[in-house]
Amino acid sequence: MLNRLKNHIEQGWYRSIWHNIVLLPLHWLFWLVVLLRQMVYAVFPPKPVSVPVIVVGNITVGGTGKTPLITWLAQRAMQLQMRVGIVSRGYGGQSAGYPLWVGPNTAVAECGDEPWLLQNRLGCPVVVDPVRRRAVEALAGKVDIILSDDGLQHYGMPRVAEIIVVDDKRGLGNGWLMPIGPLREPAARLQSVDRVVSNGSDFVLQPLELRNARTGSAIDWIKFEGKPVHAVAGIGNPDRFFATLKQLGMNPIEHPFGDHHPFVAEDLEFGDSHPVIMTEKDWVKCRDLAGDNVWYLPVEPVLTRPVRHALEKLLKTWGDKSNG
Fold it and tell me: What is the rounded CA–CA span in Å between residue 236 and residue 222?
């Protein structure tokens, strides 16, 4: 019942506001809370920290391609000889103590899926803490620049620059704040950030080779071209993943789950021999559950030249400033 209501509300985010108009009182309450928070931090800004923080976030609920973009930024910063660190709230994880330094042996249940994925991909320091400022202070003196995975609305964390990622297809939905619409903050917030980057026009996500969820061995996705596959996605926008598999010539049988879904073995069993393909983010939680015929599809962002130059300039401005 609750899931059905939740799905109905979320579907209304991308339709006319009349689908969720009954939630108008909650909308005004949410708007008031957002306004008060912004006013408080405008009057009492957080104390600065000794290392520059660039926030990569969004103003909508749901996936926009933020994690692949952070991966690109971190890799580019390292290519520019910067020591880079990442801070995250660690959504979906629960640790006995914070700040939590994420490593290869950290349980995903402790740190959350995205921090583990970033540390596994990049090898750079990743620190999780619901109080992001505490995570930033843990990295101070150890890195030249910090990227914050989300945290745009976490005003207690000082930042030198903000990047907002927007999904090109879904945009800002109906343009209303939660719960009538998908916005965490008013659309005018886009005007105050350093860069708005659109997933679908400013960059696209390029599929890499499929990797076996158990062994890590790689195969060309063309092996499954024209064949039915079970497509499993527990991300903010499963439809984007399903569309990618269709573009690769597969015939996906779609199995959408909620964002950060806590998978169990039964979620990957469908009673037939069709291969199961999931996102890399979902694989992080399914490494010990997957059978031999389960695969994940890594992606990497391909940026347009103007956006690449703009983001590199942002990194150099603040990373070089930190380096003295």
Answer: 26
Whole-angstrom distance, CA of residue 310 vs CA of residue 193 = 13
Give the CA angle between residues 232, 233, 234 to the nearest 5°: 130
Confidence of residue 324 (pLDDT cuts 50, 70, 90): very low
181-201 pLDDT, tens digit per residue, is 999 999 999 999 999 999 999
Q: Cα–Cα distance between 45 and 237 in angstroms, integer?
A: 34
Instruction: Read off the amino acid at residue 150.
Output: D
pTM across the whole model: 0.94
Cα Rg for the chain, rounded, in angstroms? 20
Asked if the bond preceding 179 is cis, omega within 30° of 0, the reply is yes
